[in-house]
Design goal:
2 domains; 15 strands; Rossmann fold; iron; GMP Synthetase, Chain A, domain 3; three-stranded mixed β-sheet; 33% helix; alpha/beta; 25% strand; binds adenosine-5'-triphosphate
């Protein structure tokens, strides 16, 4: 007679190819049921759009069939729960992963990449939040077509709590909401830092799989405030391929490695990697140089997350407030692939620490 223990033993031979450990050790197998002529169980993947889903399912079926033989039906339910390392976070207890999006230079497309990553992650079924902390040019409200909106405030135990605006299934708060769009507010370091702290402590984020933070370009007080206020899962570096941008991206990466910051780098995104005319997508013109971001990631031995081409429609989508990832075609696909690769790197990162938590309540 086959038991649940036999099934778990069989599944402990199946490895998650990314996380390099077996599914039972990773706590990914739930609800094992053994009935006459039927075995069922659930596999809880670590990202909603796991590219290895089909392979893992097949490996599970093969492993279990070796124990049961061919006459037993095997039912496998594939679900997902984004992992976290934060089992004891006093601020933002419902937020599983905080991801900083940074660049060395301004204008390399950091906000464009952040907004598209946010909607592409949300499209996979993940719960996503976005804080626009770019004091020099808070462009997220325009990119999400909500620049004239104001987040509501509610009172909880006598405290004012900001309710993030929700657009395209992303909850967002921007430092731009604190000043009228046409005003020339000069954010002093302490003012900006206290605004960011408020976005963490006095906002109703609820449960999120990923909270993205669009940082100002370069290095600033904001970066320090962020790491001193919340545990950051990792940073994504956005760069364009030319030498002057790479030199600054290099500095940005060095900053995250400093002992007082110490945030792991999840990878590099190469934006404006090549120019492509919309009507001739196979024509690629490397106007800013080729593979600069890729080479940078190799130099620092961090993952390369992907290339985004320079395409007119990406700029138009940003200006019109409907991120390119929400449309169809190769440009949207590039952002969707980027989001999947990032989610995968976050899962890999989380699996490297022993205290993996699969659910936060
Ligand atoms: N891949 C791309 N193709 C076409 N246009 C792009 C692309 N990436 C960004 N842009 C455009 O370049 C401009 C600058 O982008 P964005 O505001 O995202 O940069 P940034 O790095 O966030 O700037 P900063 O942080 O200095 O405010 C925007 O008009 C945006 O639409």
């Amino acid at each position: 007679m086959i038991t649940s223990a036999d099934i778990l033993k069989a599944l402990s031979t199946v490895e998650d190819p990314d996380l390099k450990r077996d599914l039972v050790t990773l706590n990914m197998i739930k609800d094992v049921k053994v009935e006459p002529k039927k075995v069922s169980f659930t596999v809880v993947l670590t990202t909603p759009a796991c590219p290895l889903k089909e392979k893992i399912r097949q490996d599970c079926e093969d492993a279990v069939e070796k124990v049961t033989g061919p006459d037993v039906d095997i039912y496998i339910l594939m679900t997902s729960s984004v992992t976290t390392l934060r089992d004891n976070a006093p601020l933002l207890p419902g937020v599983k992963n905080i991801i900083a999006i940074a660049s060395g230079k301004g204008g390399v497309g950091k906000s464009t990449v952040t907004s598209n990553l946010a909607v592409a992650l949300a499209q996979t079924g993940a719960k996503v939040g976005l804080i626009d902390a770019d004091i020099y040019g808070p462009s997220i409200p325009v990119m999400f077509n909500c620049e004239h909106e104001q987040p509501m405030v509610k009172q909880v135990n006598g405290k004012n709590i900001i309710i993030p605006i929700e657009q395209y299934n992303v909850k967002l708060i921007s430092i731009g909401f604190l000043a009228p769009p046409d005003s020339a507010v000069v954010w002093r370091g302490p003012m900006a830092s206290s605004a960011l702290k408020q976005f963490f402590s006095d906002a109703d984020w609820g449960e999120l799989d990923y909270l993205l933070i669009d940082l100002p370009p370069g290095t600033s007080d904001i970066h320090l405030t962020m790491v001193q206020t919340v545990p950051v899962t990792g940073a994504v570096i956005v760069t364009t391929p030319q030498k002057v941008a790479l030199a600054d991206a290099n500095k940005g990466m060095a900053m995250f490695k400093q002992p007082q910051i110490n945030v792991p780098i999840l990878g590099v995104v190469e934006n404006m990697a090549y120019f492509t005319p919309e009507e001739l997508p196979d024509n690629k013109y490397y106007i800013f140089g080729k593979d600069g971001g890729k080479n940078l990631s190799e130099k620092h031995n961090v993952p390369f997350l992907g290339q985004i081409p320079l395409v007119q429609s990406i700029r138009e989508s940003g200006d019109s407030g409907l991120p390119a990832a929400m449309k169809e075609g190769p440009t949207a696909e590039a952002f969707k692939d980027l989001a999947k690769t990032l989610a995968r790197q976050i899962a890999i990162r989380n699996a490297q620490k022993p205290t993996l938590v699969t659910d936060v309540k």
